[in-house]
Amino acid sequence: MNFLFWLFLVGLIISFFQDVKRREVDNWLNLFLLISGSVYFIFTNLNVQSIFLLISFILFFFVLSNFFYFARFFAGGDAKLLFAMTPFFLSTTLNLSLLNVSLFIFCLFLAGSIYGIFYSVILGIIHCKKMKKAIIKEASEMKLKYLLILGIFFALLGFVELLFLILAMFILVFSFLFVYAKALEKVAMYRKVRGKDLREGDWLVKDLKVGGKTFKANFDGLSKKDIEFIRKKNIFVLIKEGLPFVPAFLIAFLLYSYFQNYLMGFLISLF
Predict the structure, then answer these.
(1) Closest CA to 243 of 129, 135, 127, 112
(2) What pTM, to 2 d.p., does this model score?
(3) Is 34 in the same domain as 100?
(4) Residue 63: count of CB within 10 angstroms of its CB
(5) Which terminus of the chain is more solvent-facing, meaning fewer CB atoms within 10 Å of its CB: N or C?
(6) How far apart are CA 156 and CA 244, in angstroms?
(7) DSSP per residue over 149-188, as a string?
């Protein structure tokens, strides 16, 4: 393993603890990883082609990370971390570099899916008593019984055509997962904090009206200016904490680094 592996491994471990503890990754850490990795790449590949490749990839990752952010796949800190990892995927050619990125994104979404399921199940077990009541309430509010009736109806039609049975399973599974996710969000991810304890990017559960101003509950979260205004009012605010996603980055990084050849062979076999 070369210098870049150890640089980004240490950086991801630090960001892991930051994200789990504070639900954010410091900008200084992302900037340090990007600059240090870029400087190392330039000094070990000191030619015009490599410099052009680095600049091109920085621009490419800037667009890619913003795409994931505005498409609501990543929060702001996750998008910045992906951008900071740009130098790690650089190779001798543009095609190989793009292949490295594609493989890591595959690892990231695979790790994110598995990690997200385990995280949700563990949270559900921890808050088991509250979850039962919350699930019943959510099921009632979204009229789950009608979806269950629809699912059973399609299941019966499954004796005539297999496609209906598949559709019934999709409806039933999706309905349960949606109710579970909404219940888990309200039980385990809502938190009341004082205005002075708010951080930039915190998500409001619902629109907040205070001092004649309305702060919208949107994906961008609260800005520094918003927080400065709210702090003056000395009130409690209900915020929503998202899933800490940096652990998925760390898992994907290790998968990519140690099983790159096997995963590459598997992806190639699919086409």
Answers:
(1) 112
(2) 0.75
(3) yes
(4) 9
(5) C
(6) 41
(7) HHHHHHHHHTTT-HHHHHHHHHHHHHHHHHHHHHHHHHHH
Indicate if 11 and 101 belong to the same structural domain: yes
What is d(CA 83, CA 63) in angstroms, rounded to the nearest whole number?
9
One domain, residues 107 and 147: no
Taking the C-alpha atoms of residue 78 and residue 68, their distance in angstroms, rounded to an integer, is 9
Q: Which two tokens stand for residue 216?
A: 């919208």
Segment 181-197, tens digit of pLDDT: 778 777 777 778 787 77
**Helix crossing, 162-188 with 144-157: angle to 10°?**
160
Pick the closest to residue 23 from 183, 182, 193 (CA basis).
Answer: 193
- pLDDT per residue as tens digits for the range 23-32: 788 889 999 9
Q: What is the DSSP letter of 88?
A: G
User: Whole-angstrom Cα distance, residue 75 to residue 79?
Assistant: 6
Measured distance CA(146)–CA(92) in Å, rounded: 57
140 in the same domain as 93: no
Please list the alpha-helical segments (H only) found in the chain.
3-22, 27-44, 48-70, 76-84, 94-126, 128-141, 144-157, 162-188, 224-233, 246-258, 260-269
